[in-house]
Task: inverse folding
C-alpha cells in the first residue's frame, strides 16, 4: 500500500485551474497526450454509460512495476523537456477529482501489473496493487475511470470524438502525415467505442499552404495552411491553431497578433514540433521569457509574416483608417522599451517582459533590427515559404521593430510568385551574426462596442478598443498619443500589481512616459 501525504485536493484543484477548458476535456486530452508520449500508434477510447466508466488503452511502451509505483507521486515524470506534450500523467491524476476509482494497467515485457487509486479525503489518496483486468494485450497502458457522475460528458461518444478532433486535429488531417512521420513513425490511429476516427482534410473554397524553414535547412520547421470560407466558420475553427507533435496548444487570432477584416471566415492550422521545448510546465501554453520564450516569439513572428502576406494576397489588408492608427501608435511603442525597463525595478511582476543580463543589466529581449549600434544576433534566421515557392526562392518579410507591430507589407504578389530572399526572424542559442528581430509589447486595434475597457492585454499585445467613446473623442481632439499611453498603462496594471496598487502603477507609467519625451530632446509626438 502506498500513500501520498500532501494537501492533494488543493493541489489537484490548482492543476485543474491551470487549464482553460472543462475538466472533462482536459482529462481526456491529457491522458491521450501521455499515450502519445509513450510511443503509442493505436489509442482506443471506450465509454460505458451503464457502468459509468471511461477507458483509454494504448499500445505504447508501457511501464514496469517500479515506474507504476512512482507514477502515483503527483509531480512524477520521466520525460525531458521538448520531448513530449503530456505533463506528469496529469490527466489521470485530475481524474481523481471526478472518479470513484482510477484503475491503471500497464505491461512491458514480462512486467504486467495494475493499481487501484482513489481520493479518500483532502489529504489522502491511497493506492494499492490490483489484479490486471486484461485491458492491455502485448504491451502498453490502460486507464479506466469509474466516474462519480453517471451523466458525465466523458460517457458521451460524441463529446469524446469532438474533443479529439479539436485538440488533435493535425493527427486526424492527412495533410500532416508526412510532416509528423519522423515523430510518429508508425502513425497514430484513434477509435471511440470501437469506431475508428477517420482522417479528414479541411475543405474550403480557398486553401493556402504555409511553411517556415530555417535558413540552409532542406526540411521545414513548421508547416500548415490557411483556409477561407464564404460563410462564418464555427466558433472553435476560427483563427489560427498552433500545435506541436499533433496537439493544438492555442487557437484564435489574439495569440498571433493579427486581425483580418473578416476573422470569422478565416481559419488555419500550423504544426511546429520545435515548440515542444517552449511549452510551459503544464504543457498548456508557451513560455514567453528567457531563451525558450525568445524561441517561441521568433516562431510567432515568422508565422505572423507568412500569414500576413497570405491575408494581403487574399485582399484582407488593413484599411487606410487602421494604417493611420498604426502610425499614431509607433512613437509610443518606441518609448515603451525604456518605460517598461525602468518600471520593472519598482514593479517586479513586469520582469517577465525584461531579460536579465550579466552584471545586473536589464534589457527587453529584443534586438535593434538593423539600427546603428545594435548587438549582433546569435541565432539562425528563418525563411518563410508560401504556396508554390521553393527553399531557394522563399520570400521573407523584414522583421518588425522592437515594441512595434509587424511592418505592413502593402500590396503583395500572389503566393506562387517568388520574391527575393531577405533575412527573417531569428532563434536564440546558436552562433550567427545576422541582425535580430525585435520582440516585446505591441499595440493593435480592435472594435469592441460592448467592452467598457479602454484596452486589454493578450499575449504581448495591447488591444486598444477603438469603439470606446473616449477613443473617438481622443481622435477628434488629436490626442491619440495620450489615450494610447493611458490604455497601455491600464492594460498592464493588473499584470504589474494587485488591485490596490493599480492607480499607483498607472501614475508611475504616465510619469515615465512623459520623461521619455523629455529625454528624446522634446521631439514632437503626433497626437501627444
Result:
Amino acid at each position: 500500500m502506498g500513500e501520498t501525504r500532501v494537501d492533494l485536493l488543493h493541489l489537484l484543484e490548482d492543476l485543474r485551474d491551470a487549464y482553460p477548458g472543462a475538466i472533462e476535456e482536459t482529462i481526456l486530452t491529457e491522458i491521450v497526450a501521455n499515450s502519445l508520449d509513450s510511443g503509442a500508434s493505436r489509442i482506443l477510447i471506450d465509454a460505458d454509460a451503464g457502468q459509468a466508466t471511461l477507458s483509454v488503452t494504448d499500445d505504447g511502451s508501457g511501464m514496469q512495476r517500479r515506474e507504476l509505483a512512482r507514477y502515483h507521486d503527483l509531480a512524477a515524470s520521466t520525460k525531458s523537456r521538448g520531448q513530449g506534450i503530456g505533463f506528469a500523467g496529469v490527466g489521470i491524476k485530475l481524474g481523481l477529482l471526478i472518479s470513484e476509482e482510477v484503475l491503471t494497467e500497464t505491461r512491458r515485457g514480462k512486467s504486467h501489473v495494475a493499481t487501484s487509486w482513489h481520493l479518500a479525503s483532502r489529504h489522502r489518496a491511497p493506492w494499492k496493487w490490483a489484479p490486471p483486468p486484461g485491458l492491455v494485450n502485448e504491451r502498453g497502458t490502460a486507464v479506466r475511470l469509474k466516474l462519480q457522475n453517471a451523466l458525465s460528458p466523458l460517457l458521451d461518444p460524441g463529446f469524446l470524438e469532438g474533443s479529439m478532433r479539436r485538440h488533435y486535429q493535425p493527427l486526424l488531417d492527412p495533410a500532416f502525415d508526412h510532416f509528423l512521420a519522423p515523430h510518429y513513425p508508425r502513425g497514430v490511429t484513434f477509435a471511440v467505442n470501437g469506431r475508428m476516427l477517420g482522417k479528414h482534410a479541411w475543405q474550403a473554397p480557398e486553401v493556402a499552404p504555409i511553411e517556415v524553414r530555417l535558413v540552409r535547412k532542406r526540411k521545414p520547421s513548421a508547416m500548415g495552411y490557411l483556409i477561407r470560407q464564404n460563410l462564418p466558420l464555427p466558433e472553435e475553427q476560427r483563427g489560427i491553431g498552433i500545435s506541436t507533435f499533433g496537439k493544438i496548444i492555442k487557437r484564435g487570432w489574439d495569440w498571433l497578433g493579427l486581425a483580418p477584416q473578416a476573422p470569422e471566415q478565416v481559419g488555419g492550422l500550423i504544426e511546429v514540433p520545435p515548440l515542444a521545448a517552449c511549452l510551459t510546465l503544464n504543457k498548456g501554453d508557451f513560455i514567453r521569457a528567457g531563451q525558450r520564450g525568445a524561441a517561441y516569439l521568433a516562431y510567432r513572428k515568422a508565422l505572423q509574416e507568412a500569414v500576413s502576406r497570405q491575408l494581403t494576397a487574399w485582399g484582407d489588408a488593413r484599411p487606410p483608417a487602421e494604417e493611420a492608427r498604426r502610425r499614431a501608435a509607433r512613437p509610443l511603442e518606441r518609448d515603451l522599451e525604456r518605460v517598461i525597463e525602468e518600471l520593472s525595478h519598482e514593479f517586479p511582476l513586469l520582469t517577465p517582459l525584461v531579460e536579465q543580463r550579466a552584471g545586473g543589466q536589464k534589457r527587453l529581449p529584443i534586438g535593434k533590427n538593423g539600427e546603428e549600434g545594435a548587438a549582433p544576433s546569435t541565432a539562425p534566421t528563418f525563411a518563410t515559404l508560401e504556396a508554390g515557392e521553393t527553399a531557394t526562392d522563399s520570400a521573407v518579410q523584414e522583421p518588425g521593430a522592437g515594441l512595434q507591430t509587424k511592418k505592413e507589407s502593402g500590396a503583395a504578389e500572389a503566393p506562387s510568385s517568388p520574391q527575393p530572399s531577405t533575412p527573417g526572424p531569428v532563434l536564440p542559442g546558436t552562433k550567427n551574426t545576422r541582425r535580430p528581430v525585435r520582440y516585446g509589447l505591441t499595440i493593435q486595434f480592435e472594435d469592441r462596442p460592448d467592452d467598457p475597457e479602454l484596452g486589454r492585454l493578450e499575449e504581448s499585445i495591447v488591444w486598444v478598443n477603438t469603439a470606446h467613446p473616449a477613443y473617438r473623442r481622443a481622435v477628434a481632439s488629436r490626442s491619440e498619443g495620450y489615450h494610447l499611453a493611458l490604455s497601455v498603462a491600464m492594460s498592464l496594471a493588473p499584470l504589474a500589481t494587485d488591485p490596490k496598487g493599480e492607480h499607483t502603477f498607472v501614475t508611475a507609467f504616465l510619469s515615465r512616459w512623459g520623461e521619455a519625451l523629455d529625454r528624446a530632446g522634446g521631439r514632437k509626438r503626433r497626437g501627444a
